[in-house]
Structure formats: structure tokens, C-alpha cells
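fyi for ur records
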Amino acid sequence: MSLQNKINNNLVRYMELIPGTSAFIDARTPGSDLKDNFCIIGAGVAESSRQHVHIRETAGFNIGAAGQPPGIKNSLHSHRTAELFVVFRGQFRFYWGNDGEHEAVLSHGDVISIPTNLFRGFEVVGRDYGFMFSVLGGDDSGGGVIWHPNVIKDSQGHGLYLKADGTLVDTIDGDQVPIESELMPLLTDEELATFDSYTAQEMMPYVALRKDYVPTGEDFDTKNVKQYALTGHPLADYDFQVKSEDEVSIMAYELSEGGSIPQHSRPEKQVLINFDGDTEVVLTHNGEQANVTLTRGDVFSVPEGASYSLTNLRGNSLTYCILGSDKPTKL
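which gave:
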């Protein structure tokens, strides 16, 4: 396969994203309907077998997205693996705790790494449609979603049932109603008591606000380039702003007019999310060279073993780099 064909297979354009509208058990619950779920790289934790997946090969982590209009919620749930979000459009109110009693509002470019063993949900606030990218650690769903019992109760009567093996049954789409013994059991009060709680102040170390990004010149001391080390392990060589053990890390590169990052490679798996502006990626792999221009919202999985450069083509560009390790090797 030519390098250009690999590029085409590894590229997901924002304008070509295909949503799923019944990916989870709460997808038809009033107040949690009217939302789009996207599996961009890997199937993530989508419970529906009908969910479209753009790129199935994960190589260590999953990239997804959530899009929804104002007032629509993603219900309280927890994960056994890392879950990180980067807000792309609109404003999201994140709420967490067993009763969703704590909250924070995040907007464009804000990043949050939500700890495991913690119930969380989110809704779009304000007047604009909201969209954010999500990163899930691990090659698979890590055991799927752990739903708050109230979410499972509220979903009853809307045609979606969650089985004990984590699969979703959609009776409106023709599936048979499962028998009661097949259904996911509700968490008991004793099990709920084992989940953690964080105040809003305790959650702030897990948040990197766009206005507070701190540039680091650790890899590229290049004119018109700012590099940010946003999330990663507290013992990593990089001084990450959010110090969390997530199995993944997030870097970001802000290129002003004329800015570029030279050709380089990393041993870790890399996925680029082009957040703002237009960015040209020039790749070299096994003696071949090819290029691709990433526009706003595009996602590109860098082929294993390839080196690449980034060049700003228009305005200021901001590109996130998701790495398949929370202790990435310094260049």
C-alpha cells in the first residue's frame, strides 16, 4: 500500500463524520435524546452494534466525540479506563459525583481528564450546539460504561435495554425484548458507596483551561511555534499541566503565521486532531513522502513508523497530538 493510500485510510474529515443516535441506553430518554455519538478511531464504549466506526484499529486508545444541542445531557456514568475530553464547539457543563452534585463549565480548547471510579455526565449550556472530542485509554472498552442505577431506570419504556454483557438491545429497531435475567443488574447502595467524590476545587488539577496553557520549548525551539504539554503521568519527563495516570497523554502545537515543526518521529502511537486553522502534514515512511492538509476538526492517525512535519497554512493553527503513552519519550 502506498503512503498516500495509508494517509487516506487514516484520515477522518470533520465534515464527513457519521453519528450514531442510539449508541447508549439513555439515547431516547427525554433530556438525553437529540445527541450524536461518534466513534472516530476504535469502537470505544458504544453499546450499540449499529454504531458506525470510522477507523477500527486503535493501537492503544480510542478517539470519539459527542455532539448535542443546548439542554441535552449525557447521563451519569463511570469508566474503568481513562476518559479525557477536549471541547471543540460550544460550552459544556460537566457534573460529577453520585448525585451529580459538583460541576464546572468548559469551553473551546479546554481539556479535562476525568478520574476513574467517578460518576460523571455533561450537558451543553448556552445557545450553541456543542461538540467535543473524547479520548479513552486502552485498546477496548475497558469493561464498557457503568451506569448510575437511576439512568437505567429512566431509560425503561423507551425501547432500549442494556444486557448484562454490555450489549444494547433496540426493540424499536427490531430486536427482541430481553428477559429480565439477561438485563444489566442495578448497582446496590453498597456498590455506589465505593465510588469516589471530588469537590470542584479538587477537580481543577485535572483541567487545563485554554487561557492557561503554558508553552514549553522542550522539543521544538522554533520561531512562531508554541508547544504545550497538557496531560500525562506525574513522573513523565515532560512537565504536564494535568498530571494523571491515563495510559495516554496530550500535547498541543500552536503555529502562528509562517510557523512550522520540523520532521520528527516518536516511538508512541500518535493521533493528530486539527483544532483551528489549516495545517499541512508532510510524512516520510519507508523512503516515500506524501502530504495532507488538515482543516478544522479533522482527525489523522499517523502511520506507525512514519516521521512528519507540521506547517501552518492559514491564520493561527492549533493541533493536538494524542500519544499512546502517559510517559512519552522526549524528542
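The longest helix spans residues 3-9. thats all i got for now
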